[in-house]
């Protein structure tokens, strides 16, 4: 029996990346054991596209097992001979399907893309492989990553491990669900209006939206300044580890910048820091339990020596939605219409609605109008954050959304009706202000048995402060743990 064999399967599957790496280096556990523990959980609990968690578009267990054996042997050799250990050696990473892997499908959930094959690795995938990460599964998203729930005709319904009637969020819902369920150690995500942070909030995990260009992208839409790829994990330290691997200038993306391989996790407490608090970002109808959980985080920061400053922003949900859709109307909406031409009858209802809403917004606003709207929000955020080190606010206004929901008629909340489902989340303003680093970290549980989260927003490009405050929140207000899977 190997030393790690005495550790419970569930404990191995849920081991944080930083602890797994320490165990690998000491030879107390093996990458093979962790992978097999996670495969066992997947086989027992992921289920099918209609009733299960359904976090994956496909699994790559055979190749992952071969890589895990190689990594285990490499750790034995390194223990004997010394040397540099690749940053992710032996760790499992579930990648969002849109992060193409050469020779595998790249369909983005769309009938129009059925059977498409990625010709090359996405820059993120290239870096994961170079760092020794093991890609054992690919995660679900809504069609073209355009919704805040995760279901599609192609891949079925992805459900929240905490409450399978609820969604894990979108668009990186498969990644959030896989992390919460112990199906993977790390995961990749992307974010154009909250697609990393919303799933993190709803699954009790951690998601990071880096400043625009910090993580290289691929394809024409990587030039969209609302967009970005990013890391997800179960802890801030794990997310920082993956961010260091993913980040930095890449030769194929001249919009990317900074050094690669730098772990951005910053040491230091919050004593003396000035942290702004906005419970509603203007008029978001934040549920009472989410407000209270956010206040719990703020009180903990105050008790740790931070100065918490109430912040008022002159924003409305309708204005932020109009601003973002004016932008989408000139970029993402037309791209989606072009990509799906001829298959309109096969689109999910939310995809057709997105294309329609974007087109109508483009009729109301020119691209120049859109830039002016962006600039106004950015200027108001800059004024609100003047003299502060970071800003804190909830991630979502609602406690949960239905796993199969389209919400074409908006969302009813305890504080009134929202005309558009995107108004249920306090995330998209920080894609307008996309040079700001933003974390989503857990803040507690809702009455729906779904986790709640807060966002930590840093000043443009100030990753160190965002990581510092996020780590403090995590240490002061521990996350919800892990769901009991039936």
TrEMBL record:
Gene3D superfamilies tied to this protein: Amidase signature (AS) domain
Superkingdom assignment: Bacteria
Enzyme nomenclature, EC number: 6.3.5.6, 6.3.5.7
All copies of domain Amidase, residue ranges: 33-465
GO molecular function terms attached to this record: asparaginyl-tRNA synthase (glutamine-hydrolyzing) activity; glutaminyl-tRNA synthase (glutamine-hydrolyzing) activity
Alphabetically ordered keywords of this record: Ligase
Family, as annotated: Belongs to the amidase family.
Protein name per the record: Aspartyl-tRNA(Asn)/glutamyl-tRNA(Gln) amidotransferase subunit A
Record organism: Paeniglutamicibacter sulfureus
